[in-house]
Amino acid sequence: MGSNTRRRVVLAAAMLAMQSTLLPSLAFAQAPDAKTSLANGEKAARAKDWAKAQSEYQSANAATPSSDALDGLANAQYQQKHDAEAYVAYESWLKTYGATNAGKKRGAEARLKELEAKTGLLALDVAESGAQIAVDDKPSGTTPLATPLRLAVGPHRIRVTKDGFIPFDQAPNVAAGTTATVRVLLEAQTTKGRLSVREKAGKPIRVFVDGIDMGEAPWAGDVDAGPHEVSGRSGPMTAVPEKVTVERGKTRDVELVASASYATLKVGTSDGKGLIYLDDKLVGEGTFTSDVPSGAHSLRITREGYDPFEETIDVKEKETLARTITLKLSSKIDTGPVQQENRPLEGIYGGFGLLMTFLPGGMNSSMQKNCEDARHPPELASCSGESGGLGGGVTGFLGYHWDPVGVELFLGAQYDQTKPSQKWVASSTDPGFGDDPARTEDFTVRRIGGFGIARIRLTFQSDKLRFSVAGGVGLSYRSLVLTRDATRDSDGATDKLVPDAQSYLSPILSLEPSLQYRIGPHTALALGFSLLVESPRSFDQIPKTPMEKLHGFSNGPAAPASAVNTPSYELATGTQVFMGPFIGMMFGP
Length: 589
Description:
five-stranded antiparallel sheet, about 50% strand
């Protein structure tokens, strides 16, 4: 042996010796450290992190079983209210360590007694061995079980499975301190069905299934689930083949009709598609060739989307009849009944409208009162009422509907005006402003403002029409401007008075019936009538212009003889009623 060879042998021996020394150390290093896991479990328990404590105690007990690890595991499960698992852990601790640790034994026994009142036993009577058991979808063993299952009180899902058997699934209820027994019957799965075949008149024929002779009729036997062809023949007699479908676990009865004289029938469609029925029995798809009893037979061919073909054919004894049928596209398309939309009135809705109003009672201004009051001033020669009390506005609303009631916010802007007129004779009025000349005074009162109203809407609808009534209460704000044009009778001199605008805040009531025509699923044209009622007196905010002593005419001297007294005018008092038609649109459900 050379020196190089000796060196290689020595080196190999040294490496083997090193491996034999290091491998146990590595294995020990990779093994679970029971002391570390136990210390981590105690730390987690002091922090009341019971899930982590359970995991650490479990690892410690698996690495090196000990009294402290098992007791800690049982306590962690108890604290998490895992009653069944805690019971099993305390029971195991008592059997293993109870005799040597009297101090902890009493505590474990007390816990065990407490948990016994919260748990019960479930015994499973399973005839089949090797079946998998799952409790509440968690694996719980394989049959046969050595002991009953300890479970928390209440219902639990029990599932037992085994290859080749139908799964067993139940939810028994476990009562405290008792043992419930569930008998588990596993039924074998099958892929077979059963055929029962007889000849209608009891004639002696042999039964063929898919071309295989099964024996004399009547015959019954198990076959694979699915489609089969059943026929019969014996000597001079034959029966028309019939196509049948056998369902798994069920019996399919077949009745054949055999005849001593027979013929050959060949039937097919031009494109090889369609179900062929002979004497109301399915015998083929696309094509059919077989011996059939001679005589008359009903032939019917069907295919989706095509008119059915029906014909009575007569086949002669020992002859061959061949037919090729061309099916026609269906001349009748059944679309089914038209479903009318029945959409509920629910969801967000809104709309807008253009409003025209008139004031049947006027504004109840000072000019109107002077004209209508029987005690009007004697200097007032004649007058006309608040003619032209007309107006208009724009409105909009937004709300949410629960069929048939909706809640909405109604907003609007309005304008209206009146034009009273008064004719006065020359007079001297108190408190001594001077003589007022004979004159004609033409007034124009313009009012503009808006409102906001909370309303409730009641709606009923048909396929095209919808009837709706909305009503509510809110606030309105109005601003009024007065223009007085005075013309002196003696010389036609004029005087124009435009005092500062006056305003008021008032509560307002709204009532609005409407009829709507639906032009789309979410759109309707609306035509209705609007009634708005308010009163400046409600908040004591009657709009009044300031009083002026004398107001001169434009082409006369500023003297009492050529001027006119200007009292304070009340522009609107009492109840203000606005009514009129509107047109608009509504959107939503």
